């Protein structure tokens, strides 16, 4: 494991340095009809949705979700670090139905996902909370470069010079394509507000019909508190030199509006200015409180 490798650029997108080595295999990846792909910009609710979907395809059977850590149960397509199976290798070996984590922008999603009409669930989160969450994740996970100060990271975020590129293009492009391609587009803030409502949308979308008590169980198993304590969901089984939870836990706060305790008035004004410009050509909106 290389510590704090620099970001690389593949097909115009900044990506974590080691991930660049497997880029050709990602683009050649063979999707299947039964695949369920959870696409997000980083720190937008990927792990939360992964746990929900994994529970759902196992009809709420909690023992099945204890079979492995979330990153084993729901492999990360782009993942590639030396001496470890890559995301594409892990997925190739997996039986269907596969649940797949992916952070790619629309135009870089491997074409086989479109050809096979795999099911795609997109989760978006307001960018101020994404920024804060991503900053702390950069600090605790050494696969990222050093984030510098919060102010420096904010600048990188605005310029789209962080892993997976500009947040605004990511959320807007997936928003644009959602109807054309029958994508379920959800929001982190809606999941916080009324988890059951969003869980039911997921169930319908993936073609399941689960009784109310099972859905209740899924909701309870996927609260922030429960997932934070669940070693198979909270990334605590990863060695400390890769993810150091004492710097910042992966399951950090799980709320909406934490940005208020991070951004100064000046930083907030700068961010609002960026947001206004970046989002001027879309009807997509976010809730920040
Ligand atoms: S990653 O690394 O991109 O896969 O991260 P991702 O899972 O997308 O996002 C991590 C943030 O999601 C929060 N989280 C949750 N919030 C509420 N409820 C549940 N169940 C939940 N699970 C994960 C997690 O705490 C990170 O947000 P922050 O703001 O840092 O707390």
Q: List SSEs in N-to-C order.
A: EEHEHHHHEHEHHHEHHHHH
**Main pleated sheet:** 4 strands, parallel
What are the distinct ligands in this entry? 3'-phosphate-adenosine-5'-phosphate sulfate
Query: Which strand order do you get reading across the main beta sheet?
Result: 4-3-5-6
Give your account of this protein's structure.
41% of the residues lie in helices and 9% in strands. By secondary structure, it is of the alpha/beta class. The chain has one domain: Rossmann fold (3-Layer(aba) Sandwich), CATH 3.40.50. Helix 2 (46-57) runs antiparallel to helix 12 and helix 11 packs across helix 12 (212-221). It starts with 7 loop residues before the first strand and ends in an 11-residue tail after the last helix.
List the helices and strands and how they pair.
Blueprint: E1 8-10, E2 13-15, H1 23-27, E3 36-40, H2 46-57, H3 62-65, H4 70-73, H5 87-92, E4 99-102, H6 111-115, E5 119-124, H7 127-140, H8 150-159, H9 167-177, E6 184-187, H10 188-193, H11 195-205, H12 212-221, H13 224-229, H14 265-278
Parallel strand pairs: 3-4, 3-5, 5-6
Antiparallel strand pairs: 1-2
The structure holds 3'-phosphate-adenosine-5'-phosphate sulfate (PPS).
Quick overview of this protein structure:
This protein has helices spanning about 25, 45-55, 60-65, 70-75, 85-90, 110-115, 125-140, 150-160, 165-175, 190-195, 195-205, 210-220, 225-230, 265-280; strands spanning about 10, 15, 35-40, 100, 120-125, 185. The chain has about 290 residues and is of the alpha/beta class. The protein has a single domain (about 15-280), classed as Rossmann fold (3-Layer(aba) Sandwich), CATH 3.40.50.300.
């Amino acid at each position: 494991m290389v510590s704090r490798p620099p970001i690389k650029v593949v097909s115009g997108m900044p990506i974590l340095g080691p991930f660049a080595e497997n880029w050709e295999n990602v683009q050649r990846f063979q999707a299947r009809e039964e695949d369920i792909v959870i696409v997000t910009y980083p720190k937008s609710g990927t792990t939360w949705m992964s746990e929900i979907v994994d529970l759902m395809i196992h009809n709420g059977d909690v023992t099945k979700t204890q079979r492995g850590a979330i990153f084993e149960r729901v492999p990360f397509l782009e993942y590639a670090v030396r001496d470890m199976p890559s995301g594409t290798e892990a997925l190739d070996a997996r039986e269907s139905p596969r649940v797949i984590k992916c952070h790619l922008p629309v135009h870089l999603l491997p074409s086989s996902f479109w050809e096979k009409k795999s099911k795609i669930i997109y989760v978006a989160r307001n960018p101020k909370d994404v920024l804060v969450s991503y900053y702390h994740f950069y600090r605790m996970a050494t696969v990222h470069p050093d984030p510098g100060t919060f102010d420096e990271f904010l600048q990188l975020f605005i310029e789209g010079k962080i892993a997976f590129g500009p947040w605004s293009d990511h959320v807007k492009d997936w928003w644009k394509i959602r109807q054309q391609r029958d994508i379920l587009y959800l929001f982190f803030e809606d999941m916080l507000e009324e988890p059951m409502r969003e869980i039911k949308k997921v169930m319908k979308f993936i073609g399941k019909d689960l009784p109310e008590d099972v859905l209740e169980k899924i909701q309870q198993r996927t609260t922030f508190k429960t997932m934070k304590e669940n070693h198979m969901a909270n990334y605590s089984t990863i060695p400390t030199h890769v993810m150091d939870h004492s710097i910042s836990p992966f399951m950090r706060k799980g709320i909406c509006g934490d940005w208020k305790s991070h951004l100064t008035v000046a930083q907030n004004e700068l961010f609002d200015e960026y947001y206004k410009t970046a989002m001027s050509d879309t009807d997509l909106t976010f809730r920040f409180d």
